[in-house]
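ok so i was messing around last nite and threw this chain in just to see what happens. nothing serious, just curious
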Amino acid sequence: MVRKLLALLPLIVAVYARSVNEEPKHWAVIVAGSNGWYNYRHQADACHAYQIVRKNGIPEERIITMMYDDIAYNEENPTPGKIINRPDGPDVYEGVKIDYRKEEVDPKNFLKVLSGDKEGMVGIGSGRVLESGPNDHVFVNFVDHGAPGLIAFGSKFLHASDLHHTILKMHKDKRYGKMVIYVEACESGSMFTNNLLPKDINVFATTAANPHESSYACYMDKVRKTFLGDVYSVRWMEDSDREDLSTETLTKQFEIVRRETNTSHVMEYGNLTMGDMDVAEFQGKNTQMHIFDKMPIPNPNVDAVPSEDVEMNILQLKVTQAKTESERGLEKQKLEHLKNTRRRTEETFKHIVALSVNNNKDIVYDIMMERRPLLSHDCYKPITEYLRTNCPGLNLVQNDYALRHLYTFVNLCERRTPQEAIMGAIDKTAEDTDLC
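result:
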C-alpha cells in the first residue's frame, strides 16, 4: 500500500502544481437592481459595464447579468432598443445577454449566484451561477439605491450582513482566488466598513460613497428626460474605456476615479494590497489589439444631483419643457405630489422615532440630527424589514428619499432602543395616521 502511494506521489504533486500555476479564469457578475424610467441610469451603467468586460475578453458564458430590462423598449425611450450611458454616446444595450429579469432580480437569487448554488437557481432565469474555482478572478459590479447597511434590490433589500456572510462562504468554499467588487449606491461604504469586509480574504472593494452620503446621478438628457449615468460608475467605466488595462493597476484606477468624482467620497475596502494588480486581471485580459475610446467625454460632475433628487429634477424639467398648458399643469401636479410625499416621509420617520422614545423631545432631536456608525446589524436588519412590510404607504424600497432617513433607525438601534418599542411605534404609526 505504501509503495503504491509513493508511486502515485509524483503524479499528485504534478496535478497540484498544475492547479496552483493554472492561468486564472475571469468571471463577472453585473447587476442593476432598480426599475422604472427615472432609474434609467442604473441599467445604462450595467450595460456599459457588460460591454467593457466583453470587449476585454471575458466570454459570455462567464458573465452573469441581472437587470429588470424595462428601459430599452420602454414607451418613453425615443430610441427603442437602444440605451446610452453618456450624451450622444454609443448604444450599450446591443449584445447584452441578460440572465435574470424582472422579479428574478432579487437579493436571494444574487447571493445564490455568488455562492454557486446551482440547485437553488433551477427554474429561475437562465439558472446560471458562478462556477469559479480557487484560482479564478471574479469581478462584481452592483448598481442601485442604497442606505446604511443595505442596498435596494428590486422590491427588497440586500443587507450588508447577508453579503458579508456570503463572501465569507465563497472564501471558505474556494469560489475565487481574488475578487473585486465595485458598488454604485448611496451610503455604499456602509456595506463594507467596520470589518464587514475582512482584509485577509483576497477581496478588494470600492464604493461610490462613504457610509453617510449620497451617490450622484449625472448626464441629464433633455430628450429622454432622465439621467444617463452615475458619476462614480461613469468615471470608472470611461477610464476603463480609454486605458490599457494591462498596464493600469486597481489602485491607479481608484485614485483616478476618486480624484475625478468631486460629488461624493469614493472609498476602498478589504485587501488593499490587491491594488497593485492590473485592472485587466478582473475586467478582462484581451490578447487582441483594440482601439481605445479617445473621444472627448463631458464632465459628469457638472449637472450631477444627489440620487434622492433625481425624480424631482426630472419633473422640473418636464414642467419647463411642456408644450401645452394642460401638459404643464399635469407635470406640476406630479411635482407637487412628489413634494408632498417627501414631507410625509419626513413626518413618518419623526413620528416613529418619537413614539419609540416615549416622545422625549430632547432624544428625538438628537436621533434626528446625529449619524452613528452602524454596528448593531441584529437590531437594524429586522427593524428595516419590519418597516418595509408594515408601512407599505412609505414605499420604502422605491422611495429613495425615504432611504435617506434610515439613519434614524441606525441611531435608535445604536442607542439600544428595544426592538419591540420601535416595531410598536411602526404599528402605531400605521394604525393612527395615514402616513403608512
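not much to say yet. The chain has two domains: 24-304, 322-432.
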